[in-house]
Design brief:
By secondary structure, the chain is of the alpha/beta class. The protein has 11 helices and 8 strands. It has 2 domains: 124 residues, TIM Barrel; 117 residues, no CATH class. This is DUF72 domain-containing protein.
Length: 275
């Protein structure tokens, strides 16, 4: 996501042609969730334009299409998976991880299907799996079962932390909408690989979002000290201030781990003037 309407004129220049929007976003943040690929595989030329707007060390966490994960549930997916992998090939090293988001109906009984699917994937990519059945988080046997499959495949478990969001009732239209749509996920802060990925959902109130991510400051700093390279995505229900919040999170982590590289200097959203 790099074309949010409320960012235009604030974080991104407006008007800005589509071929420049990602370049502007990449001056604010050095990673992005590739969520649109869940709904349709993009044209290879489109993906090439994404690569052309970003540096080789920019991180795309690209979601595998729903036809693979939700409609066919990881079975008989050779053709749509081949088409998807061919389409994202221009990203090269920017494809930080391919994100396998599974439906809430995916239960521990389905883990053997996931194991078979992961074994069939090419080793040219890293993979990260997001599950939404709370049993995986609350039942130690289910946790161990999934962790075993992921470790064997060198794949990461992506937690979606919604605990801060659901701590108190919603207070805005965007929060009320998210209240009915977002999953209530238990907290998990265990990394399985050297590239952990976290998705965090705060509130539209900045102070409450910052309060809720304090545990992730500690966890992320600890991972960095261990030599891991984490990627953290910060969301709010309206996402209006997400780029600014992401940079604030990075600054808070960097205060704990000073050797962490600074984020790039943002491209001005408004043209510079002489006065």
């Amino acid at each position: 996501m790099w074309t949010h309407k409320s960012w235009q004129g604030r974080f991104l220049a407006h008007p800005l042609p589509p071929s420049e929007r990602l370049r502007s976003y990449a001056s604010w943040c050095d990673a992005v969730e590739g969520n649109t690929t869940f709904y349709a595989t993009p044209a290879r030329e489109t993906v090439a334009s994404w690569a052309g707007q970003t540096d080789p060390d920019f991180r795309f966490v690209v979601k595998i299409p729903k036809v693979v994960t939700h409609e066919r549930r990881l079975t008989d997916v050779d053709e749509p998976l081949r088409i998807f992998l061919d389409a994202i090939e221009p990203l090269g090293p920017r494809a930080h991880a391919l994100w396998i988001q599974l439906p809430g109906s995916f239960t521990p009984d389905d883990v053997p299907v996931l194991a078979r699917f992961l074994r069939q994937l090419p080793d040219s990519h890293r993979y990260a799996v997001e599950v939404r059945d709370p049993v995986f988080f609350t039942d130690p046997r289910a946790t161990r079962l999934l962790e075993g499959v992921l470790v064997a495949a060198h794949a990461e478990w992506v937690p979606f932390d919604t605990t801060a969001f659901f701590r108190s009732p919603p207070t805005s239209d965007a929060e009320r909408d998210a209240w009915t749509k977002k999953p209530r996920m238990p907290l998990r802060s265990v990394a399985l690989t050297d590239r952990p990925i976290v998705r965090y959902l705060g509130r539209d109130d900045t102070a409450r979002t910052v309060e809720g991510w304090q545990r992730w400051i500690d966890v992320t700093a600890g991972w960095l000290r261990e030599g891991r390279s984490p990627t953290v995505f910060v969301h709010t229900p309206d996402n209006a201030d997400a780029p600014m919040l992401a940079r604030r999170f990075h600054d808070d982590v960097r205060a704990r781990v000073p050797e962490l590289d600074a984020l790039p200097e943002p491209i001005p959203a408004e043209p510079l003037t002489l006065f």
